[in-house]
Design goal:
There is one protein chain. It contains 5 helices and 7 strands; from the N terminus they run βαααααββββββ. The chain is of the alpha+beta class. The protein has one domain: C8orf32 fold, CATH 3.10.620.30. The longest helix is centred in the middle third of the chain and has 14 residues. The protein is globular, with a radius of gyration of 16 Å. The N and C termini lie close together (7 Å).
């Protein structure tokens, strides 16, 4: 499902896009906590978006659904755990921010998301929170805003660095895939508890956001 927006993240996407080369996107591990994901061909630069998500909103007692999914998946091997978290969170109904909150763009907490449904960045935030509960290093997970070049909307996913690879958890499908496995996603902007980063230098216009 798609939530069409005329505004949304256009004001915070400082990173642009270069020509996509799916064979040249192998990620490298961050060298310290405050490091963004690395994409070959897409320079990673520290950035200060106008409306970043405040990750302190994830602090404190987790939402009941966060605890339940964490408990359900705790004993699984790492990649199976990523797949199960992705699949379970993706069961939440998709609803656009205008319907839920009366604004063009709103980054919801997991508690708000599980109560109201949400759109792509809300799925990514909930997955980040659940994996953090499971002990995944928060500095090795990023909410990544992408441009989906087949039809050019803006989309957000969670990317997780594990075993030397960058894995994508996407509300558009239940399969967890290695970055580069879908050749029409271009990284534009990323954030986690430790910072925000842009990926590229050409200006990015926002037409719609899923």
């Amino acid at each position: 499902m798609r939530a069409t927006r005329s505004l949304g993240l256009a004001s915070i996407l400082l990173g642009g896009l270069l020509t996509w080369n799916a064979s040249a996107t192998a990620p490298t591990a961050p060298t310290h906590a405050a490091a963004g994901p690395r994409f070959a061909g897409y320079p990673t630069r520290p950035s200060t978006p106008r409306f970043p998500f405040d990750f302190t909103r994830l602090d404190g007692p987790p939402a009941p659904e966060v605890r339940r999914i964490a408990e359900t998946t705790r004993d699984l091997p790492p990649l199976a755990q990523l797949g199960a978290v992705n699949r379970l969170v993706n069961r939440v109904p998709t609803r656009d921010d205008r319907t839920n909150y009366g604004v063009a763009d709103y980054w919801a907490t997991p508690r708000e998301f599980f109560r109201n449904g949400g759109d792509c960045e809300d799925y990514a935030i909930a997955k980040y929170a659940i994996l953090e509960q499971l002990g995944w290093p928060p500095e090795r997970m990023w909410i990544v805003v992408l441009r989906e070049t087949m039809i050019s909307p803006i989309h957000a996913v969670l990317m997780v660095h594990h075993d030397g690879r960058l894995w994508t958890l996407d509300n558009a499908g239940d399969r967890v895939f290695e970055h580069g496995g879908v050749d029409y996603y271009r990284p534009a902007f990323s954030l986690n508890r430790f910072g925000t980063w842009s990926h590229g230098s050409a200006p990015l216009a926002l037409d719609s956001y899923r």
